[in-house]
């Protein structure tokens, strides 16, 4: 199937993050699903959230911010590595920041995207008809 679409076999399977190639395909999936973007700031490669999808951006920002707070606490010695790991492994159960929001299931997300695409097509048709008149 990968040959038919001229893509890597890694793009068709559940990524194996234990390999660099698998990790890259996981990051590509995060780009497609959640707007994760790669860029450069002051000569450093960085990952950032795309602000064009406000709902996804705010949800992801809040979750990332909660993670960053815990990482900062670890760095400053406010919590131990074990406490930090517990927080990560049980997230969001142990998150006290209350920044995170529940993300809709992929099925709901897909359904909404289909409806938005239908609306967009209708709007384009209407706009095209107006231009022709």
Give a written overview of the molecule.
With 133 residues, this protein is mostly helical. The protein has helices at 2-5, 20-34, 54-75, 81-89, 106-132, and strands spanning 36-41, 44-49. The chain has a two-stranded antiparallel ribbon with strand order 1-2. Helices cover 58% and strands 9% of the residues. The chain contains five helices and two strands; from the N terminus they run ααββααα. The longest helix is centred in the last third of the chain and has 27 residues, at 106-132. It folds into two domains: 2-104, no CATH class; 105-133.
Per-chain topology:
Layout: H1 2-5, H2 20-34, E1 36-41, E2 44-49, H3 54-75, H4 81-89, H5 106-132
Antiparallel strand pairs: 1-2
Helix pairs in contact: 3-4
Strand order of the largest sheet: 1-2
Q: What's the average pLDDT?
A: 83
- Count of the domains: 2
The count of β-strands is: 2
Which spans have pLDDT < 50 for at least 5 consecutive residues?
none
Main sheet record: 2 strands, antiparallel
Distance between the termini: 46 Å
By DSSP (H or I, 4+ residues per run), the number of helices equals 5
The SSE order reads HHEEHHH
Rounded Rg: 20 Å
Structural class category:
mainly alpha
Q: How much of the sequence is in beta strands?
A: 5-15%
Q: Into which percent range does the helicity of residues fall? A: 55-70%
Based on Cα principal axes, name the global outline: extended
